[in-house]
Design brief:
Length: about 70
């Protein structure tokens, strides 16, 4: 017998957006410089826009799959 799994389709995208916003704040204005220093990046390091878009897209996809 298969389990009866019910998904809240509204909660899934809402949780993805909230997770993305919290992550952006965490690794941005709150602790971004501290994190970058801990990872060994120079203070003036800026990744390429294409790398950032790829990373954000994979982050959103992964968060959606986890949700």
């Amino acid at each position: 017998m298969h389990p009866d799994i019910r998904l809240n389709w509204l909660a899934i995208p809402v949780s993805v957006v909230v997770s993305w916003l919290i992550g952006g704040a965490w690794y941005g204005p709150l602790f971004g410089k501290t994190w970058a220093r801990g990872m060994g990046y120079p203070d003036d390091f800026k990744p390429a826009k294409s790398e950032m878009m790829k990373a954000m897209g994979l982050n959103i996809l992964g968060t959606f799959l986890m949700a």
